[in-house]
Specification:
GO terms for molecular function: hydrolase activity. The chain has about 270 residues and is of the alpha/beta class. Helices cover about 35% and strands about 15% of the residues. It has a single domain, classed as Alkaline Phosphatase, subunit A. The termini are far apart. The chain binds zinc ion (ZN). The site of zinc ion has 6 residues, from loops.
């Protein structure tokens, strides 16, 4: 199977449980740089229930939990399966890689479609995202995939243990930011990089429809993306798969209910003018 020779990668970094106001409060030079270099919104929306596995099923399948039916952190096969992002890319001969430290995410795509993956059970260790980023950087440098999913789970862990917006949580967000900086350095120049959370949190939990749980930060950078631009259109988790497909020049799958975040893209006219 030939890979298109000049497909720059799309790298999707998931910051589990990171609230937008945490980024505003903590010292986050890498994420601040993404704002300057790209399009962003601090008002993107999670799904109901704002729980990690339901959120990820919505991210990878572009349908709400009421459609995929995963309503808690427990997977069961879908009664009516959806063609997800990884399967969709695979049909176009685009290779997906996944680097993660929370095992339940193994079900965001069906067996037989990933090109590479790395899992280690470290989401509950304070330094447990470092090994994920080590591996992701190696895989990116070695061109092991066209689409790289980098899952960082420790900010959520610290939120549950110490409270969202606690000093320890903010410190963990700063640590995450430095790891994101490493991925940015490892990424080839023409890469597109998407960074967003699955949900926020309040006190020591999340899962409700409260704005603290539902509102998430969202950043996109790359050659097709506007710079220093705040996206005004509503952005939801359902839009991730269509947006990533669009970055590869592909239409959405007909099963998907989200839309590509086209407002973030440089249109033809802008490009010629720019
Ligand atoms: Zn989560």
């Amino acid at each position: 199977m030939m890979n298109p020779p000049e497909t720059p990668p799309v790298i999707f970094i998931m910051t589990d449980g990171v609230r937008p106001d945490a980024i505003a409060t903590a010292n986050t030079p890498a994420l601040d740089q993404l704002k300057q270099r790209g399009a962003y919104t601090m008002q993107a929306q999670s799904v109901v229930p704002s729980i990690t596995l339901p959120c990820h099923m919505s991210i990878f399948n572009s349908v709400p939990p009421s459609r995929h039916g995963i309503l808690e952190n427990h997977y069961h096969p879908l009664a009516r399966p959806v063609t997800g992002l990884v399967e969709h890319l695979h049909r176009k001969e685009l290779r997906s890689g996944m680097y993660y430290n929370w095992d339940f995410l193994r079900d965001v795509c069906r067996p037989g479609y990933l090109h590479t993956s790395f899992y280690v059970n470290t989401a509950y260790n304070i330094n447990g995202d470092e090994i994920i980023v080590d591996h992701a950087c190696e895989a990116i440098a070695a061109n092991m995939a066209d689409f790289h999913f980098v899952y960082l789970g420790t900010a959520d862990t610290v939120g549950h243990a110490m409270g969202w917006m606690s000093d320890m949580y903010l410190l963990q967000v700063e640590m995450l930011d430095s790891l994101i900086g490493r991925v940015l350095e490892a990424a080839p120049t023409q890469s597109h990089i998407l960074v967003h959370s699955d949900h926020g949190g309040h006190e020591r939990d999340h899962g409700t429809e409260m704005p603290e749980d539902m509102t998430i930060p969202w950043f996109l950078v790359g050659p097709s993306v506007r710079q220093n631009y705040e996206v005004q259109q509503p952005v939801s988790l359902l839009d991730t798969a269509p947006t990533i497909a669009a970055l590869f020049g592909l239409p959405s799958h007909r099963d998907w209910e989200g839309q590509p975040v086209t407002e973030a893209f440089i249109n033809q006219g802008d490009e010629q003018a720019g």
